[in-house]
Write a structure and sequence with these properties.
Length: 186
């Protein structure tokens, strides 16, 4: 509500399967929704956004076959940015990302330990491997140090990235990253 109040022209890209849920949750003051499903691309304000099937813990489809869980590849200008959202590895993940020539991959690293009693994500090694396999120019981890049940550190991710020779940047809360840092990687 606060984001929409501050930005009346806000458009929210979300999974088609979640539109009714979002309408119920946000009520009358909902922003404009731009639904997308896995494999579909929508355009908004100079951005091209493609839904990427995600598994949290598993792929979950509604009765019409639309995925409840998505990551997104946003392309704009010369950039392609993949934001995984919540996901684990599944058979379609890498093939769906390869055509996008991802520059920046934002990947979860909090794993899937049953004792956490929440749906899982990639662990650090899987996240670094995914970034390498899709040819990401750089990977930035997320889903750590946010909640009491997100107890993973970045160490496994950093060690795996080093083994795979995958460029990464680990950011702490509030820290920023600039695309100019890619020049030092090339």
């Amino acid at each position: 509500h606060e984001l929409h109040a501050a930005n009346p022209g806000l458009t929210l890209v979300l999974a088609t399967a979640n539109v009714d849920f979002a309408n119920d949750r946000l009520g009358e003051n909902s922003p404009c929704f731009l639904p997308v499903d896995a494999g579909e691309t929508v355009e908004s304000n100079g951005f091209s956004i493609t839904g990427i099937l995600a598994a949290h813990d598993e792929v979950q489809l509604d009765q019409q076959g639309h995925s409840h869980f998505l990551g997104f590849v946003a392309t704009f200008g010369p950039w392609a940015i993949y934001h995984s959202g919540d996901t684990r590895l599944h058979d379609q993940l890498i093939p769906s990302l390869l055509p996008h020539s991802v520059d920046l991959a934002l990947v979860p690293i909090n794993g899937y330990k049953p004792e956490r009693r929440v749906a899982g994500n990639l662990n650090g090694a899987e996240a670094a491997s995914l970034a390498k396999e899709i040819g990401a120019r750089i990977a930035i981890p997320h889903h750590f140090d946010m909640f009491a049940f997100n107890t993973e550190t970045t160490e496994e991710f950093e060690q795996a990235a080093k083994r795979f020779e995958q460029p990464i940047k680990v950011l702490q809360a509030g820290e920023t990253w600039s695309s100019s840092e890619l020049a030092s990687i090339a």
